[in-house]
């Protein structure tokens, strides 16, 4: 777990001390179970040990939107709502069996006590919150793009590593994330592949012409 951004620069001994100080536990969840649902008070910060989850929101018409996907060891979840002690209006769904470290949010209350471990983790948490703000700003910019092709291009540029975007999203989840329909997304992806911009391989999308994609932004 010390590979998580939340535990950056932690030693194994410091991590063990953190578990004692914070009263954190590792919980196991079955596939399709909910970690939290709309109406739940967020009082824990979650760190993914294993598995894959999706953060989803359902509107009043029943339309489901995937807000984020978590599949990497050490990813931090629900930090904003939990730190602010807000009521959730999202559902965190386990797409597979999962193991999750659950940290009581009261541990982060510096008015209660301050220790070297707490000071260290608070510094890391501030960085994570700043990155989350940047991510949300990027998504707003993506969704405000004029065309679906521009949205896809922005999404691919933001999620690629070595010219390959592999978020683990299904086509339906990607469509929800981009606020479009699955048929429209599939048609546009095939059109972009025919144009030589990308190459499709399941959930993996390879960027073939980065310059042309960037020209769309």
Which helices and strands appear, and what pairs or packs with what?
Blueprint: H1 12-22, E1 25-29, E2 34-36, E3 44-50, E4 53-58, E5 64-70, E6 76-77, H2 79-83, E7 91-94, E8 98-104, H3 116-143, H4 148-159, E9 160-161, E10 164-165, H5 171-177, H6 182-194, E11 198-201, E12 204-207, H7 210-216
Antiparallel strand pairs: 1-8, 2-7, 3-6, 3-8, 4-5, 4-7, 9-10, 10-12, 11-12
Helix pairs in contact: 3-4, 4-7, 5-6
GO cellular component, one term: cytosol
Protein name: Cyclic nucleotide-binding domain protein
Organism: Finegoldia magna BVS033A4
Structure characterization notes:
This protein has helices at 12-22, 79-83, 116-143, 148-159, 171-177, 182-194, 210-216, and strands spanning 25-29, 34-36, 44-50, 53-58, 64-70, 76-77, 91-94, 98-104, 160-161, 164-165, 198-201, 204-207. The protein is α+β, with helices and mostly antiparallel strands and 217 residues long. The chain folds into 2 domains: 5-137, Jelly Rolls; 145-215, Arc Repressor Mutant, subunit A (Orthogonal Bundle). The strands form 3 sheets. It has a 4-stranded antiparallel sheet with strand order 1-8-3-6. Strands 2-7-4-5 form a 4-stranded antiparallel sheet. One of its GO terms (molecular function) is DNA binding. This is Cyclic nucleotide-binding domain protein. Residues 6-108 form the Cyclic nucleotide-binding domain. Keywords: DNA-binding, Transcription, Transcription regulation.
